[in-house]
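Many introductory courses stop at the sequence. We go one step further.
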Amino acid sequence: MTQTALHFDDRLGTVLRFRPSGEAGARVQYRQLLDLLGMLPAEVAGAQIDAAFDRLAELGGVLAASERAALLGEPGLRLRSPRLVAVLAQAEPGPARAALARAELDEDEWRDLIPALQPASRALLRERRALSPPVAALLTRLGAYDRGLPPADVVAMPAPEGIGAIVRRIEAYRRARQELPIPANSDDPRLPLGEDRPATRRVQAFDFATDAAGRIVWADPGVAAMTLGLTLDDPALAIALRRRQPLRALRIELAGAPAIAGDWQVDAVPRFDPFGGRFTGYRGRMRRFAVDAGALPALPRADSEADRIRQLLHELRTPVNAIQGFAEVIQQQLFGPTPHEYRALAATIVGDAARMLAAFEELERLARLDGGAIEIEGGACDFAAIVEATAGQLAAHTAARSSGFALRRDADAPLAALAPAEGERIAWRLLATLAGTSAPGEVLPLAIEAGDRGVLLVAELPATLSARSDEELFHAGPGSVPQVIAAGVFGVGFALRLLAAEARAAGGKLERRDNRLELTLPGLTAPVPDHSPQAARQAG
């Protein structure tokens, strides 16, 4: 252990040996723990650290939220520990807002922490203006927007001054909203100010999350403005809330904007605080009820088959979600102590259910891609850099086996015309499949270059796959090809079929040529530096 860690342990041990007896002592020790844990290196862990966090939670129950918020706002406090920021972000809005405003995390730490935060904490973090563009983009992608007025201190003032303060807050809110771009196809409700607007599209399904009272605190970006703050009011839901039970095919009615008004079917699972086991609400999906088939035009056969597959997967997903939810209740001992043997069995069930749900998602994605029900999100990404980064991630496995990829990257390869998340998904599916089936000592050549239609990735097949016919390669069942790393639940053949469907939906293709695979993705055209007639004549 380093000298710094020893010094830190000595100081923390000294603080923990003192048990405060009054509120003043609790306030002092709370600030001391904030100072020590706030500068805690990310790699330091141990029983003493856990005891310090337990003491911090205990003191938080003694001190009022306003006092904790004031302590977090004192000068000189440095919050550089992601674990401490995650704990403080789960507190009441006042302390959570103060902690998120003072946190000094780097970009990678924010990107690791934000997905684990509750929707309410993400909304508080969105109030912070000094966020880097990637962090702000991540918050936007997770549905965190500026939806409220800027926070204001509660200060006694005469009535005219109070009105003036409110007016200033509204003006600040208006300016902040003007800085936030609104997509052209946004479903957010708008005031009837006489401008032209497209006809309202009726929402058919969306994901959501609630707080412990059943109030929606997060929803898909397209419906967030219409649903945030709505309370799911139903007698059956009230019973499930008290019992912390999953919601299965619950029928509720939403009132509001025309796009969301009407009857919905709700499927959701309970969520619990990972630090204390406290019930925090539900996360799930709402779907419209099926309408009379006679009122709809006949669909093509391919679409009908895709719809039937999706319906079948929904019927399978519902009981698996229920089993997973009850297994988590047993594993986390939410209803009382449980023998370790049963908790271990419950943990196994939770893992198996997660793998089944992942399999359902892969099947549904392939069915929707083949049926044209979804499109690959467009955009711009450096696909060559994504492939290089993915190969580097897989090196943690391949290096130990003296296998991996010999990457050749063309500097002239254009950007791919798809979103970075889609590029990462495609790169992982291909490289993980190849790395998982390669033999020890087998290094596969991998080239990324500019193709006729965009970006071209050429990868040599491992020996276990190159000897197979096209039919065997793309239709191999689970277990037919040994895999150390799996890019999917259903094996090599299904992963390559899904990859081919994703490439087609993006405007590219996946082809086999002899003992190699060629993946083509559409590229972005390089900008022309000068469009003047004189430049055009010179180019001619």
